[in-house]
Amino acid sequence: MNEAVSVAARGSTAAPFDRLVHIGGLAKTFFGTDQHFTALDGVDLELAPDDFFCLLGPSGCGKTTVLNILAGFEEPTDGTVEFEGERVAGPSRDRGVVFQADNSLYEWLTAAQNVEFGLRIGGASAAERARATAEFLKLVGLGDQGHKYPHELSGGMRQRVQLARVLANHPRMLVMDEPFAALDAQNRRVLQDELRRIWQEHKVTVLFITHDIEEALLLGTRIGVMTAGPNAGIKEIIDIPPEMKRDRVDHGFVEMYARVQDLIADETNKSLAAQAGRAKEESKPLGRTSIAARERHRRRRQSQGVQSLGIYAMSIVAFFVIWHFGSLLMDSVLFPSPVQFLVTFAKLLLDGTLIRESYVSLQRILSGFIIGSLIAIPLGLLMGSFRVMRLILDPYIELLRFIPSIAMITVAVIFFGLGEGSRIFLIAWVTVFTVTINTAAGVASIEPNKLRAAQSLGASKHQLFFLVTLPATVPFILVGARIAMANAFTTIVAAEIIGAHSGLGTMLWQARLYMLIDNIYVVLITLGILGLTIDRLFRYFSQKFGRRYAPHI
């Protein structure tokens, strides 16, 4: 081994004023519905004010998790994370983050406006923003590109804009998550040189996540190699000698590369062995914080549940208190008190009137909603999939959707008479346009590479539609259907004015005719309760059965 390479956790003995970042005993466990995963367990790391620290390790070892915790995007399950002696409690402009992808840039702003974004938030004057923007765009080699929008720049240029935006805020530290991973070799080398130069000039501390050993050796002052996950930690920290040439053919560089590569390969092999069930004594035990973390998570969930129930209860009590005082200030004939309301509500509920009328209205809502959705989903898929269909149908969809359902009552009666058909037609009317537009937008939003990947694997058009297009559109269909259901509830009253003899709309209309004020409020609140219940059920089933298509719902 090259004797110039020293293996040590350098920060562990540093004096407090010599360290900018202190991470001690860091652990992070992710909890699911019925399982948990301990990504990090016992990570110890300290960074000095002038460190350029590169963190490497096998895929899935938790490098990005360390970065997210230090950046303040995630909370640790256990351990200490301090920046300048203060506990990290959230994101801060002192820790500037450069992301792997360039999708953190704002497409509606020019490069210059993106760079000055943080300064604008911080309240800097226009002159200060202009001066800093020009300075840092020039620093990253984009002095004449400030007027361009992100889509007009190459991938390398967009990463430079990201870097300039962060540097313009004068952070004490840069936190970088594989910022050059998606670039071609030439752009990557150019940006590596730029970053090294900027670091040497400004001496800002850097935590740099990378998979590339060569990149780490070209840039870093120290390299940390992580163990394989789960329960990952720091395997070794290697000081890179200042005198080592940053040259790929230098003997010292080659020896250092081999040393780091051996460390990562060792952890990768252990991970593969463990996954194949071949790990014996060498396999890592369960993380020491897993049980305690799970218990803390359980207690936190219970506490949040109790807190949520308390907030709900308080909001209901506050609602009735405000209602009570409102009825005292107004004429109780026009605005009945909560007691009057509850008495009337109980009476209509117990004699079956409210249940019967609600059942009738729900039947109409669901019938119209289902019919409208069955028309809208194929229509939206056609519009999203075929440009010709979109050009033909879009003008009519856009024109008709602005005609309110109440204005269509006459048309409904002309075509369907005064029977159930008219009422169901109006519900279907408001459903069709919402679901169609959302479905078409979903198809249009599918990333082209998803389709190209399937095509390159030999998918037929039929397979492409059912295996890619339709599943990718599911989240948009669900959102459209949920909005359409809300619209159906707002339409039911108008629909039941058409010669109906039952339903909540009819009940409301009759209460108005006979000035049964209590009944009016009972019907209104009942509509709200039914709508909220249906929406919560819809959301529950969407999460239960649609999570594989839309993990975020």
Task: Describe the overall structure.
- There is one protein chain.
- By secondary structure, this protein is an alpha/beta fold.
- The protein contains 18 helices and 11 strands.
- The chain has helices spanning 63-71, 111-115, 117-121, 126-139, 155-167, 185-202, 213-219, 251-275, 290-329, 338-350, 353-385, 387-400, 409-416, 420-444, 448-456, 461-495, 504-513, 517-546, and strands spanning 6-7, 21-31, 36-47, 52-56, 78-83, 86-87, 95-98, 173-177, 205-209, 222-226, 234-239.
- The strands form 2 sheets. A 7-stranded mixed sheet has the order 1-11-10-4-9-8-7, with helices on both faces. Strands 3-2-5-6 form a 4-stranded antiparallel sheet.
- Strand 2 and strand 3 (36-47) form a beta hairpin.
- The radius of gyration is 31 Å and the shape is elongated.
- The two termini are 52 Å apart.
- The model is unreliable at 1-17 and 278-287 (pLDDT under 50).
Q: What integer value in Å does the Rg equal?
A: 31 Å
Count, helices: 18
Output the helix-strand order: EEEEHEEEHHHHEHEHEEHHHHHHHHHHH
Helix content: 55-70%
Largest sheet: spatial strand order:
1-11-10-4-9-8-7
Overall strand count: 11
Measured between the Cα atoms of the first and last residue, the distance is 52 Å
**Share of residues in strands:** 5-15%
Low-confidence stretches: 1-17, 278-287
Largest sheet: 7 strands, mixed
Core attributes:
single chain, 553 residues, alpha/beta, seven-stranded mixed β-sheet, four-stranded antiparallel β-sheet, 18 helices, 11 strands
Offer a concise description of the structure.
The chain is α/β, with parallel strands linked by helices and 553 residues long.
